[in-house]
Amino acid sequence: MRSIIFANYSAKDTRRLGATMDVEQSYVRFLGNLILNLWDCGGQEAFMECYFTAQKDNIFKNVEVLIYVFDVQSQELDKDLHYYQSCLESILQHSSHAKIFCLVHKMDLISEDMRETIFAERQNILTDLSKPLQCSCFRTSIWDETLYKAWSQIVYQLVPNVKGLEKTLTNFAEIIDADEILLFEKATFLVISHCTRKAHRDPRRFEKISDIIKQFKLSCSKLTAAFQSMEVRNSTFACFIELLTPNTYVMVVISDPTISSEVTLMNIRNARKVFEKLEKDVARN
Amino acid sequence: MTSNSTPVLYAIQYSEFDIKKGACVYYETMKTNFSEDQKFHWIRNFVCPEPNLQNKLIVLSIENQKLLGCPVIISDGEKYKNNRNEFRFNACFIIPSQADALKYEVAVRKLAKYLRTLEIDSCFLTDESLKKQFLKPALDEIVRQINDSGEQCSVKMYSSVFVNLKLLEQRAEPPPVASSDVPMFCNNIDLSDLEQMDPMTQRVIASIDGLRHVNKISQDTDTELALVKAAMQNLIYHNVIRLVPIFSYKNRYIVTPKIHELYADVNLQKELVFFVVRNGAKDCASFYECFRMICAFDHGSLVKDVVNKMKANNIDEKKLVQYCALKGYLRRVREYRISMDESIYMNNNTETSNGNAEEVEPAKSKFKKTIRDLCDGTNDTDSIACHGYIFTSRSIPTARKPTQQPITPMDSYLTLWK
Fold it and tell me: So what family is this one in (chain B) (predicted)?
């Protein structure tokens, strides 16, 4: 997951990866001035035993987000849940304010009709087990957009001044009469903010877009071309994906056919200054 | 190795990295300090470590045992598709902690290499049946053979693959060999192995009799001096010979404290008595007589004085003196002539100022200078005598006394004995 979201691997590329040995730390630049310190902990029994004993202080202190990944195909659910509980205990002890996410992973190996039920079942078990802490559960797979939904939510927790961003986006949407505006982080293409003025029937559209654009970016890079912007237009809507600030992309959806492309593009260009200033203010604080 | 001393190799512990359980011990030939779960837990990250540490020798100690490992990681996306693309293992040696780890390093690395090749070629380690059938008994046999012989093993691992390991003894650099040194055997060598020795050693080995010095050997066998010296160094390294001073009746020797060993050990005494008996004598001398003669060398007495005083007919004084020098019971007191002529200590200056001298003159003055230069306190009379051979004559000479050397007016000098 780490290599897909943060290192531009395609799902197929991950097949080449070896097992994570003990704890692998990496530093990821996010939104320009945010540095995410990711601790990827290997899941072998030998390592797990160690995390809750010798390395407990080291691993569980100063944690902002705990992401626990369950293999949906694992035959030893009890053991997995036992380890999860140990994790929660350690978190409660050292970083009780941390946000907890549970990802039920490898869902592609379950047949489609069973997915919702199995996930719902698992979600109940985990929410119960996590009390008094709260956890958010997602079902994921590297082969579809569910991965992006989970990680968008995770990263959303970490974006500074997310409310201010949303307010500005809403303003912007009103002014240019857009149906929907999405804000993406530039490197990972995770949705960090959005404003919806007109309801849409597909609740999974955000992650689908993340997935599609990311794949497109990867293909572009294979041809050593850099992705810059995109315009999709048909009789019912027009959609513009443009660079907004040095660290974010914006997607504007307009369904009024009378508004020409040039107008929207000009609006976006002018809005840039506002968002850039917003970003700078946040950085200074 | 006798059974009551510590074994050379306690055990071999073979571990693999399992993608569910992590690093775990697959098989060990014997329980050691590293077998218990808790203890293994502490070291598992060094037994099957991250890629940075692969193929490096890793040494860990717990109490009185040391573990030496060389972790191997084989990456193959195709073959190990179901094993996260890698296969990791480590065959570790467990040795007494006072043993020198470097002695085993070559063997540990070699075993890792053998197992790695076997795995790549025939999936030896990933095939359960092969592993159980061949690896376990082979590891047991390796430990057994190394402990029996003390240093090596030759074990059949699988079909035509034999694992040959040898523990290398770390020995000190042999000292430089001077032309006036006499090599003497200190350990037996099997002469039937003669053909396996290098040609140089074969040539000189017959000349080693405890009386001939290196220069003489080189002349007797008609070989270049530098090569003879190299051959001697080689034999010293393998602990076959040791160097003793040239024997001469005018040599001075002095007794050393090591004489106590001889006094206390009956076996050493017997060895001495048998060695020093004169050729053709009816009986061996008694140990009392030999010991008395050795102790007569107090305050650096001359050999000829001691022989005259003792009058022991059954004892060959040459053999006695050389034997005691070899064993360390007697120490040679060497004579150093030190020239008081200051010019040799300032020879740099004089050379530069003689830039315009004639052809003949410089040669002669060089000769003069060199002999005098030798008397600067670093060369004893033996070495100077050896140099004398080179300068004065081409025919086979005998030992020249320093006073007989045609040295042009040697200025004042003093003699130092040490």
Answer: Belongs to the NPR2 family.
pLDDT band for B412, please (50, 70, 90 cuts).
low
Cβ atoms B280, B293 nearer than 8 A: no
Does B79 touch chain A if contact means CB atoms closer than 8 Å?
no
> What pTM was estimated for this model as a whole?
0.65
Do B19 and B49 belong to one domain?
Answer: yes
Q: Domain limits at B271?
A: 252-332
Strand pairing partners for A67?
Answer: A101
Interface of A with B (CB under 8 A): 15-19, 21-22, 42, 44-47, 49-50
ipTM: 0.72
C-beta atoms of B17 and A17 within 8 A: no
Domains of chain A plus CATH, in order, are 1-157 (3.40.50.300), 162-282 (3.30.450.190)
CB contact under 8 A, A44 and B21: yes
The values of phi and psi at residue B280, to 5°, are 90, -5
Q: Kindly determine whether residue A22 and residue B21, on different chains, have CB atoms separated by under 8 Å.
A: no
Give the tens place of pLDDT for each residue, B301-351.
888 888 888 877 788 888 888 888 888 888 888 877 777 766 666 654 444
Q: Cβ(B94)–Cβ(B108) under 8 Å?
A: no
Q: Are residues B301 and B342 in the same domain?
A: no
Handedness of CA A205, A206, A208, A209 (dihedral sign): positive
